[in-house]
Amino acid sequence: MKFTGPEPGGPQAPGTGGGLRLFVFPHAGGWSLMFQDWPDRFPPDWQVRALDAPGHGTLLDTPPISDAGDLVTYFLDRLAPEITDDRTPFAFFGHSMGSLVAYELTRRILAEGLTPPVWLGISAFSAPHPDDKTPELLDEALSDTRLRHQLAALGGTPPQVLDDPYLWKVFAPAIRADLAVLRGLRTAPPTRLPVALSAFAGADDRAAPPASIAPWAERSAHFLGLRVLPGGHFYFQDDLDALAAQVTADVHTALRTRGAVAGIR
Length: 265
Hints:
Elements: E1 20-25, E2 46-50, H1 68-83, E3 90-95, H2 97-111, E4 119-123, H3 144-154, H4 159-163, H5 165-185, E5 193-202, H6 210-213, E6 220-229, H7 240-262
Parallel strand pairs: 1-2, 1-3, 3-4, 4-5, 5-6
Helix pairs in contact: 1-2, 2-5
């Protein structure tokens, strides 16, 4: 994954003191390589990095995590040196399943008395409610054939992974672990976070239509708006520049108002 700025824990490069760390949480079955073009679309003093969960991407040889709480703990432990560095603010952007991971990680950070992200971006995931009907995709008994069909309909998973028996055998455990994480995260009670939040949707997304994403407004004390962009579930694949421009604008808004937002409880 291309990384703009200094390596974690290293000295800051010139000009990055006023920058930002943007951590990107991929969708179920996703990995960092899918977001390799993102760093070049953001301000040069931002450090933009997509994160691999165990069993994904650069961590393919490690056992995947299927427990929601354990996965949140994993990311908190991994990011602790960076998110507790007061020199550089940070923000989270989650796509699909990554939205819930980013949201729950923010809740955990607040619960532990740490400084939260200045901004949280939620993308292509309907605002969950404990009483919601479980989607077919999250059915534990879903066959491999039906699961591959569901993933193909969403897009985002390379066709060769879904069609090649060997590759499917390699990637299926991580995908099923992600779906188990989703089952755990989507039933968590709603919390209104003292963090600026923007919600993003693809206009033609059937899995998470804009109307189902709008209720994320209730999860933030400073909701910046619902941003509807052309496309389906992976709308940014068609126009990453449009998403990056909106994310950049919203983060700058959050940075300007973070003192006021922090005072809201």
